[in-house]
Amino acid sequence: MTHPLHAASADAAGETTKQQADELVLEAQLQPLADGGVETSRLLSEALRLDPSNHDAQILLERLHQMTVPRWHFPMLADTGRNQAYAKAIAEKVKPGDVVLDIGCGAGLTAMLAARAGAKHVYTCEQQPLIAAAAKEVIARNGLSDRITVIPKWSHDIKIGVDMPEQADVVLSEIVDTVLLGEGALATLTLAMKSLAKPGARCIPESGMLFAQPIESDSLYEVWRPQAAEGFDLSGFHHFATVAQMTPGEFDVCNPRPLGIRAKLFDFDFTNPSMKDASISGNLVCSEAGMVHAVLVTFEMRLTARITVGNGITAKGHWGRTAFLLKHPEAVAARDMISITAQHDTAALSLTVDGIVAPEATSQSDGASTTATGKHEMAASPARVLKLATS
Ligand SMILES: C[S@@+](CC[C@H](N)C(=O)[O-])C[C@H]1O[C@@H](n2cnc3c(N)ncnc32)[C@H](O)[C@@H]1O
Fold first, then answer.
1. 207-377 is classed in which CATH architecture?
2. For residue 385, what pLDDT band results from cuts at 50, 70 and 90?
3. Which of 200, 253, 283, 361 is deepest in the core (most CB within 10 A)?
């Protein structure tokens, strides 16, 4: 039987430990998150080491992880189509002895694939320090710490001679959102190819394309532009809903019907990227009659000449979809054209629907003109149209 005095001192020690854990939790709550949550995470982890059942520490750590580690990491890592495409492309393009720069380490998957493909060394950067620390752990557990260096920095802060001993033979990345540009891929790759890669370095992905396609979907409109709720008219709120962003599940529920094949908007060469803005105006041709509710924008990335990934209308991967809603659903007949203008800068795409053009209003000629700014414009006559390339 435990001596009552021993039991009392054990209780007192337990109380002190719990008190210390509570103090660490209080301190954690006062930390600014400017360091990406590193100090907050350290204090909360220490509190949980002292008192594993500290409820406040558990909750705060979970909240910190939700704030700092975007939830799309998990379905992305479970997207076997994406993973296999990258694995094949990396095996094809990375040669034994290559120095690889992997921009955007995440959990470390693409960096480990490059090491497995025979890279002499892989430098992988990750701007989020908690993610970078976890990747280091993943890489260590896979026995690759001697072949992969995790640099907990933005790629644009990497210095040759400090973070990497030499420029890369291959620049590898997967830093795209549903319309390719939202994670800043153009600026990131332009800077990386200029200063962190050897002349003529290989790139994975090599290029990317954006496409537009007219779709019919009552449900898309019902979800994004509900007319009324509980008898109240909500139309005064609709102007905020010009762009619908959907997870793959939400997109499937909308059951979209394509009213025409997709047309190419923009091409991006990632081996020789540019930070120039561009815009294009033109017509999407309807191949079927129906009600057009939106223009769906999707991408395709060419990882190698033969391997592509993307989020086309029937794709099954983790990437969501972006659809630009018309102000009002419009009835279209086969051969009608939907006049659109799209533009992009280094981080965003926008698209407006300018109207529906009946086929008799158009001539056979391609009235495209390109100004010095690279802007493709429709010719002055509304009858002349710029044909968008189709795929
Ligand atoms: C889409 S994940 C891809 C992760 C991993 N490469 C993969 O394919 O599984 C992109 C990661 O890159 C990071 N990231 C994006 N742009 C970056 C940049 N320019 N420099 C450093 N990290 C970046 C993000 O924080 C994110 O964790």
1. Distorted Sandwich (2.70)
2. very low
3. 283
